[in-house]
Write a structure and sequence with these properties.
mainly alpha; 2 domains; three-stranded parallel sheet; HAD_sf; HAD-SF_hydro_IA_REG-2-like; Haloacid dehalogenase-like hydrolase domain-containing protein 3; HAD-SF_hydro_IA
Length: about 200
């Protein structure tokens, strides 16, 4: 479903609940489950409600302190995510990550119709940040392909977090990426760099 109708069906104007319903139904069928309509509706409602809440998500303990520290330093914080509208309006606030205290603006693929690694999503972020130049931005992500490369391709500074000690991190470093273990290290790195972004 995500390949056929990316960005949660944005281009086709598929209602969010219909996109999710089709995705969930397809997943069950592929797994060998073909529920009758009544059973499927009950199961789907629980899944849809769960993924529209903070229940299946957790934030890393360094996230909120880091975001607040960056904003306190006078920097604008944006979130660029391949997520649907509920992420902005419901999930992040339920996790304690609020617009205005932890972040200033968000660019969410389900609301924009473009998703990472397409560099256009980063160009939208530049506009939302006040039409700033890419070289004034530091993008922090965890995917070389979806975060680092597209951000660098439009002229942003970028670094990667490797919280889980992935095997790929060494290749990221060999490719020239700054790779840090967490946001505590990112804060130390920014202090050492004198917050030049």
């Amino acid at each position: 479903m995500a390949r056929k109708h990316p960005c949660f069906g944005f281009a086709e104007k598929i209602p969010n609940i219909i996109w999710w319903k089709t995705c969930v139904r397809d997943s069950f069928i592929r797994a060998g489950y073909d529920y009758d309509e009544e059973t499927f509706e009950k199961v789907f409602k629980r899944i849809y409600a769960s993924f529209g809440s903070s229940a299946p998500y957790t934030i890393f303990p360094d996230s909120q302190p880091f975001l607040r520290w960056v904003r306190k330093k006078g920097l604008t914080v944006g979130i660029v995510s391949n997520a649907e509208y509920r992420y902005k309006d419901v999930i992040l606030p339920a996790l304690g990550l609020n617009q205005g205290s932890e972040w200033d603006f968000g660019v969410f693929s389900g609301l924009e119709g473009v998703q990472k690694p397409d560099p256009r999503i980063y160009e939208i972020a530049l506009q939302r940040a006040g039409n700033i130049a890419p070289e004034e931005v530091l993008h922090i992500g965890d995917s070389f392909r979806k975060d680092y490369l597209p951000a660098k391709s439009i002229g942003m500074h970028a670094l990667l977090l490797d919280r889980f000690k992935t095997h790929d991190a060494e290749n990221w470093r060999k490719s020239g990426a700054t790779v840090l273990p967490d946001l505590v290290a990112a804060q130390e790195w920014l202090i050492a760099e004198k917050l030049s972004y």
